[in-house]
Amino acid sequence: MESNFNVDQFNSIVQSRRSVFPYQFIPGKAVPDEIIWQILDNANRAPNHKHTEPWRFTVFAGEGLQRFSTLQSEIYTRYAGEKFKEAKIKNLVEYPLMSSHVIAIGMKRNEENKLPESEEIIATACAIENIYLSATAYGLGGYLSTGGITYFEEAKAYFDLGPGDRLLGFFYLGYIATPATSLSKREPVKEKVKWIKN
Ligand SMILES: Cc1cc2nc3c(=O)[nH]c(=O)nc-3n(C[C@H](O)[C@H](O)[C@H](O)COP(=O)(O)O)c2cc1C
Q1: Centroid of ligand 1 to alpha carbon of 129 (angstroms)
Q2: Is residue 81 part of a domain?
Q3: pLDDT tens for each residue of 138-195
Q4: Contact between 106 and 166 (Cβ < 8 Å)
């Protein structure tokens, strides 16, 4: 059967996807919430084993960005301990304020279907790639950050995540002022593939 889709366009979305950072965003220009909902609905279509749908999203927008800025810098300051670096605070405070939306991404364990944890992380990673590709298709910039408070046990509760769940990172989104000027660098796929045909 012929494809119903424009494959050239799809390939070009995937190939041209880049991480775009908040300092590359148009300051103060908000993405309509309807677009964010569509992006999240695309994330919600990610493949997942046993229908566990482990991804959870907390969306910060409008005044909520200031709240997130304060929240993550306070959690970092309070719990970083020996790893505390003053220089990190600046981005934790400023990046949310340069963004249109920030989406905290959690992986919630399904109590009935205890799959291997890796499967739930893989499913949530698929949801993240759907966010990346959707943002690209909409002409938006964004990137996944796993810095700051991502791996702080104490941060989980703020995102309705329990001890067995995981906070996987924060997706920053905005309109692009300064686009990436080249495709993302990759070593040839041939170096990573082995074919067996007989
Ligand atoms: C799991 C994961 C975690 C990441 N964490 C960070 C991060 O903490 N800080 C950052 O600057 N970029 C982060 N990135 C974005 C990468 O830097 C980016 O994907 C990489 O440089 C390749 O560029 P590209 O996305 O434009 O292809 C992360 C990406 C992934 C997939």
Answers
A1: 12
A2: yes
A3: 999 999 999 999 999 999 999 999 999 999 999 999 999 999 999 999 999 999 999 9
A4: yes
pTM: 0.97
- Asked if residue 1 belongs to a domain, the reply is no
Give the range of the structural domain holding residue 76, as residue numbers without chain letter: 19-192
Q: How far is CA 186 from CA 22, 35, 59, in A?
A: 23, 30, 31
**Distance from the alpha carbon of residue 4 to the mean position of ligand 1, in angstroms:** 32
Kindly list the protein residues whose Cβ atom lies closer than 6 A to any atom of ligand 1.
18-19, 143-147, 169, 184
Phi and psi, residue 142, nearest 5° = -175, 165
Pocket test for ligand 1, best of 24, 143, 170, 182 (most atoms within 8 A of CB): 143
